[in-house]
Amino acid sequence: MSFELSRPRTSIGVAMLWTLAVAVFVAAFAAGVFEARAQTETVPKDRAQLSLTFAPIVRESAPAVVNVYSQKVVKNRGVQWFSENPLFKHFFGERGLGGTMRERVQNSLGSGVIVSADGYVVTNHHVVDGGTDIRVVLLDKREFEAEVVLDDERTDLTILKVKTDGEELPFLEFNDSDELEVGDLVLAIGNPFGIGQTVTSGIVSALARTDVGVSDYQFFIQTDAAINPGNSGGALVDMGGRVVGINTAIYSRSGGSHGVGFAIPANMVRFVVDSARTGTTVQRPWLGAQLQAVTSDIAESLGFDRPKGALVKQMHRRSPLRGVDVRVGDVLLSIDGQQISAPEEFTYRFATKRIGTVVQIAYLRSGEERTADITLEVPPDDPPSNPTLLKGNRNPFAGAVIANLSPALADELRISNFDEGVIIVKLQRGTARRLGFKPGDIILSVAGKEISTVDDLKSVTRNNRNLWEISIKRGERIINTNIEG
């Protein structure tokens, strides 16, 4: 008996039946899929559905975005290309070879946004800084003179008032910039490179950017909508045609757009505009505390699962935080329910609150979360600044304008508000300038005597000396020097 090895085979009849069954199943499945798609997809029925466009938003928004032109006179000495050379200055000094100063007109171009029918316009401080002849040109070519109503270098914002003679202008409304989310569609409208009004589209690519470095309040909207030189002061608008930011800076290695642009949030802009409309300066609440980022190491030591909040590193003796029992070492977690992830975020949100209102902060101490209500106030002018010009033939500070350093003065000078004592605020011609003292120097002691007030310095410099032992603080450095009388 023998066996033959063979491969198993399926008969032709069975194969045909199997193929037919599979075909029927596929047909039924396909019919169901197409029916489902037909319920969600339709053929465009009109031109609006066929052509998706931002045009309706642009039509409503663009007329309120303007070109801002400013001029200022600058002085140059002699042959500029030569006299500005550092090697030339090394040998001949800042005055060069003498000769008369030449004046020339420097033009500046940027963008702006009309935010009221009676002609209030927002632009960037750096667009009109020092300008004496400011003009605003609308999309329809109408041209108006404008004057500076409020200039706030700390936010890089300037509010202009157009002289309309009662004529109403197109304007844009603000939206709540805190409602923005990463991925939201936005349009950037402005006048890049002076070529005329241009609209670019993009998305909000990040929020709360804190390392931009163009103003005191580091809390910017980041967008990939193309922003270029000339766009500064223009509008960043949402899909409702409302202003969510003022375009102010770009990240670029070449000067052109690399898809990383930054805008000042509308909530900060609106705060400055409201101050301008009421005819007041921008009054910001005073915290009187230095905050520090919560690093991963600090977070671990505090029992956090991740870094969050802002650590209170230092407090002024008059800080309103002391009155509600917040202490150095506590971590601020939120303000009016808005979570805090960095010191810059707390500073921004705190700065947009109004004087006299009450805000609630949440903070953490020893693992326990607490809350406190703070009434917002301006930095105190205590002691009174008492600016005084010092004189005297043998006075080393002759020609210096000095003042008592208070939180209010420190805020005005944009320096640390934890220092106290006497500060040089200005230098006129005199001994102090020749000896190399500078505005911002804090005078700590003179002739072995501690200087706490203007009167202290006036008293100690009233008598002539053969040798002046002087200690000052310049920035973070302590400088001790001896000066012959």
Fill in the CATH topology of the largest domain: Thrombin, subunit H
Binned, the helix content reads 10-25%
The Rg value, from CA coordinates, equals: 33 Å
Head-to-tail CA distance between termini: 133 Å
| Unreliable segments of 5+ consecutive residues | 1-22, 78-84, 87-92
Query: What shape does the CA trace take?
Result: globular
CATH class identity of the largest domain: Mainly Beta
pLDDT averaged over residues: 83
Number of domains: 4
The CATH architecture of the largest domain would be Beta Barrel
Strand content: 25-35%
Tell me how many strands there are.
25
| Coarse structural class | alpha+beta
How would you sum up the major sheet?
7 strands, antiparallel
Question: Count of DSSP helices?
Answer: 12
Look at the structure and name the CATH superfamily of the largest domain. Trypsin-like serine proteases
